[in-house]
Amino acid sequence: MTQVDRCKKDKKRSVRKKIEPSLFLSFSSFSIQGLPEDNWQTYDNGHQQWDYVEFGYRYGSWKRFYRALYTKPVYEGQQGLLEFARPDNIIITNIGINPEVIASLSDEKQKETIKAEGVINNHHQRGADELPHRGIKDFGFEELPFKRFAANSAFYYCMVISFFLFETFKEDVLEEVVAVGSYATTVRRKALDFAAKIIKTGGEIILKVTQAVMNTLRFKNLWERCQNPIPIVV
Question: If we measure between CA atoms, which residue out of 85, 86, 122, 82 comes closest to residue 102?
């Protein structure tokens, strides 16, 4: 093979590598534009709506078809989006194609997961598994304080137990004040970091707060809930 032939072959390889992703997008757009309007459906999770359409897709080198869902959000916050301004997204999955993927789930969960709405919801929650790690690091420490494993292990387990109690406190007491998914820094800033005065009088200890704090935090309700904790069933 001459040097010229090698250059031509390398050029074809580079062009092929650049063209394949664009062919995937243009093929998807072409297929979607040709689908009937009756195929489009709407998924609403209570906070956002998506227009979506489902079809089968197989890439040039694939041996089987996969499920493809083309989605477009209807809103950005509370602002509706015009058709041309909606960002699009393509989800390709083998859920519903390969039954072994969801074989370990219950029958009820399998029915929910295999639906198009379930696939979209799980796709949006794909990063949720990392949030507990972020939450516990925000609650405690990213680095353990001791040099030996046993001491760090005991410290870590105490931090996990404390984090569990903190999460239950948010659900049982602070639900009306802060979102259940709030991190420890947000809870400290909203529910704990406020001015107060402790007064001793008549044999009683009184915590005095401003009327604004009383109204914003619904302090009376919080106090009553703290005095009547939900029992933990063992």
Answer: 122
Cβ contacts of residue 219 below 8 Å, gap of 6+? 209, 213
What's the one-letter identity of residue 3? Q
Other Cβ atoms within 10 Å of 6 Cβ, number: 10
C-alpha distances out from residue 153 to 26, 39, 132, 135, 217, Å: 53, 55, 18, 19, 36
In the chain, domain spans: 35-126, 130-227
Distance from C-alpha of 172 to C-alpha of 174, rounded to nearest angstrom: 6
Token pair of 179 as six digits = 């979102």
Using the structure block, give the residue that is written with the tokens 């001491």. Answer: 151
3-state secondary structure of 205: strand
Query: pLDDT of 177-216, one tens digit each?
Result: 888 888 999 999 988 888 889 998 888 888 888 898 888 8
CA nearest 123: which of 50, 183, 185, 59? 50
Tokens 């292990």: give the residue: 153
pLDDT digits (tens, 9 = 90+) for 84-118: 777 888 888 888 888 888 888 888 888 888 898 98
Distance of CA 47 to the CA centre of its chain: 13
% of the chain beyond a pLDDT of 70:
84
